[in-house]
Design goal:
The chain has 213 residues and is mainly alpha-helical. Helix content is 73%, strand content 7%.
Length: 213
């Protein structure tokens, strides 16, 4: 949300973000190179995948920035509502940028997919395809609008609050259910033990009576 609403909206913030991502990528490469020399192994494409992640995020951020820089020209005239030039009236050309384009959607989808994928250690192609699909759907709905991000974050906050409140209550209910079940099981065990004791007592009495006869 911060990348879409803030970092990719302003030129200076976009430049700073891209620079930091490139710097992070070079630092990761340097660390991997030092580790590879220490282990006497060569770097391959598989080991360099962590280097490419910040660069791909940078591509996504730049795509989001560029997606908001497509110009939509709108001509307005001071001569009336029908834009007719009358007398000394002049035509004013106003430059307007598109607030959302498919280029922006591509960048937002790419950034969201990479952020989600980095949360998992094992990333299979099927899992990446799933992440891309989910990110594409959310990016199509969010469209870089702040209030939609706020709505999504508020919804997540409500769910988190319900989970925090519901889990202790559910735990108490489960403990009560288990306790009641254990009581019933204990009563059945004690009743069965009493029956066995009574049966054994009767056998002992019968055996004593038979020995007297």
């Amino acid at each position: 949300g911060v990348v879409s609403v803030l970092l990719s909206r302003y030129t200076i913030l976009t430049i700073v973000t891209l620079g930091m991502l490139v710097f992070l990528s070079t630092r990761i490469y340097s660390a991997l190179n030092v580790a590879a020399k220490g282990a006497n192994v060569k770097l391959n494409l598989l080991s360099l995948k962590d280097v490419g992640v910040p660069l791909l995020i940078a591509v996504g951020v730049f795509s989001m920035f560029r997606g908001r820089r497509f110009v939509m020209e709108n001509d307005t005239s001071s001569g009336g509502e029908d834009n007719v030039v009358v007398g000394d009236s002049t035509t004013v050309q106003e430059t307007i940028y598109h607030s959302w384009t498919w280029t922006f959607w591509f960048g937002e989808t790419l950034v969201m997919t990479l952020f989600i994928a980095n949360s998992f250690e094992k990333r299979s192609p099927a899992l990446l395809a799933l992440f891309t699909t989910i990110s594409g759907i959310f990016a199509l709905w969010l469209r870089g609008q702040f209030w939609r991000y706020a709505t999504l974050l508020g919804f997540q906050g409500v769910i988190a609050l319900l989970v925090v409140l519901a889990f202790p209550i559910m735990e108490m209910i489960l403990e009560q259910i288990v306790e009641e079940k254990m009581k019933k099981v204990g009563e059945k065990i004690r009743a069965h033990d009493a029956r066995l004791r009574e049966l054994q007592r009767k056998r002992n009495v019968g055996a004593a009576a038979a020995s007297l006869d």
